[in-house]
Amino acid sequence: MMQQPGGLSLNPSEKWCNSLDRAVRAYPTELAALAWGLGQEWQDDTVLGLDLLPAPHFVACSKAAIEQLNRDVKGFLQEILGLIDNYDRETEVVILAIHSGQVKLVYFQPQMPPSICWSQLQTDIDTLIATLEQRLSEQIILQ
Length: 143
Known about the structure:
This protein is α+β, with helices and mostly antiparallel strands. The chain has one domain (28-133). 50% of the residues lie in helices and 20% in strands. It has 6 helices and 6 strands; from the N terminus they run E-E-H-H-E-E-H-H-E-E-H-H. It has helices at 12-26, 28-42, 63-72, 78-86, 114-121, 125-139; strands spanning 2-3, 9-10, 47-51, 57-61, 93-99, 102-108. It has a 4-stranded mixed beta sheet, sandwiched between helices. It has a two-stranded antiparallel sheet with strand order 1-2. Helix 2 packs across helix 5 and helix 2 (28-42) packs across helix 6. The longest helix has 15 residues, at 12-26. The chain is globular.
């Protein structure tokens, strides 16, 4: 187990969640830009997903697939679905992280609206995806 400040130990599921949280804090502008850019391409209710295995990579999560997963797990994802249904894409970011059968909702409001994050980065989607996947691979602890 990973040792936290103050002597607390983390189990493996807490490790990946905590390292994901640190990565989100390190790259909020880039993640907001990616969510915005892909949202503009998709033009529907698809949610940005981050599958952490075998290495972090971004995926499209259809609303229908998330709803089916919620039914399969007997409503366990209902709160996540509520946030997905009601977040403001103009000011907030939602990413569904997936690791070894576990799901974590990444939800934050960047300092600038996601559309401004996108326009300020001045890069294309493919380059941004590759850059972020590499950075997340280096930062997120999976074991």
